[in-house]
Amino acid sequence: MIRIFSHYLHRQTLLQVGFDLGLILFAVLAVVLSQGESAKLALPFAASHGLSLAGCMFVINSATGFYQHVHNRSVTESCARALLGLMFGLPLAYAIFRLVPVDTSHRDLLTMVAMSAVAAVMVHRVYASHTTAQSRLRSRILIFGTGAAARTVGNTLRASDPHAQVVGYYQSPTEAQLEVPRAEVIGQGLGLTQAAREHAVDEIVVALTERRGGSMPLRELLDCKLSGIKVVDIATHFEKTLAQIKISHVNAGWLVFGDGFNQGVMRSAIKRVTDIIFAAAIMAVTWPIMLITAIAIRLESRGPVLYKQERVGLNGQPFSVVKFRSMRTDAEKDGKPRWATLNDDRVTRVGRFIRKVRIDELPQLFNVLRGEMSMVGPRPERQFFVDELIAKIPYYAVRHSVKPGVTGWAQVRYEYGSTIEDSVEKLQYDLYYVKNNTLFLDLLIMLETVAVVLTGKGAR
């Protein structure tokens, strides 16, 4: 894993992005250089257009979810995403390279090569999506511990990280209870440093259930670190691997003395400017959709088109969120707040569709322009549920240290949920965002939101 602008990315992801961008740029420049002196005059223009197309393909591949590492994605789903990408990528390649100021024959050749490069990128994306598990760049990880915490780390790595290979578990002398398969315990009779070197370990995850009583061989861990082996604690491991902060394995000291949680005046100012730009741009593009939605809601059922509800915002301050009405007007006729569920019978037919493709969220752009919300941030909750969740979930109030968002890290990473347990899972993503939020992460979330809308997946 490599940390870029406070966000962890797989080395393989960076290599995939570099390969895709490089393939397009190489193809365009190669065809220009092969056409003789006359075509070389167009080299600067071809290079700039090639970079533009490469940037567009990065956005398309990100928006279709090709740079996400998903274990159970089928070949059929990958092919469908590739076809969707081609629907946008091929017309873009054609449009961009028809503008190159060279003679017709060279322009036609450049356009054909650019479109072929786009097709090659999408074919490679499908191929790479199903071969990453055999990558030679997989990290070899040794889990230090054999208790329940170590078992959790091992199960998580195998389930969620195709780029990690668990070489085994190393038992601490103070850990008597074995919660992992005995066959996977390695290095018996060897010191930690020697065991790590013999198994060519790249990283050690310290996952001890009990850390007191000399269970941590600090000298050996330091020797491992000095020899180039990464050493991380269990909280940092989950932050890197799952892009979560697991509240079951974190303490206040780790949050206080670790890095992150950098808000700052400059960060807030930049975020506010980008919020206004993106909100205004999206409204300019989607106003016909909003108009059609308003008409459809009015035709289907009586009642207001827009739905206003008090939510908890920055620093716990209440504000009125605006959405398209997707439920019956008597959804809470008994006056008692209720969680929205996946197949909620209170949702209208129009409401079911606009909720699925997130059209009901578009009026929240007005909240963004008013400064009550941001484009990206934790989703705002009602005060009734906030009070309940603060009482039951540690650190829940931390999510109110930033503005709530129209979309968020939890929304693009976690499926629909409406229970206390689901709230815990979503909070762990929200804590990661609050700790590591940057403009870079905001842009990634907005790109992944497009993928969520296109596939109909994600949380509400």
TrEMBL record:
This is TIGR03013 family XrtA/PEP-CTERM system glycosyltransferase. It is a multi-pass membrane protein. It holds the Pfam family Bac_transf. Keywords: Membrane, Transferase, Transmembrane, Transmembrane helix. Residues 271-454 form the Bacterial sugar transferase domain. InterPro entries: Bact_transf, EPS_sugar_tfrase, Sugar_tfrase_EpsB_2. NCBIfam families: EPS_sugtrans, EpsB_2. Coiled coil: none annotated. Belongs to the bacterial sugar transferase family. The chain crosses the membrane at residues 12-33, 45-67, 79-97, 109-128, 276-297. It comes from Roseateles paludis. PANTHER family: COLANIC BIOSYNTHESIS UDP-GLUCOSE LIPID CARRIER TRANSFERASE, UNDECAPRENYL-PHOSPHATE N-ACETYLGALACTOSAMINYL 1-PHOSPHATE TRANSFERASE-RELATED. It is found in: Membrane. Its main location: membrane.
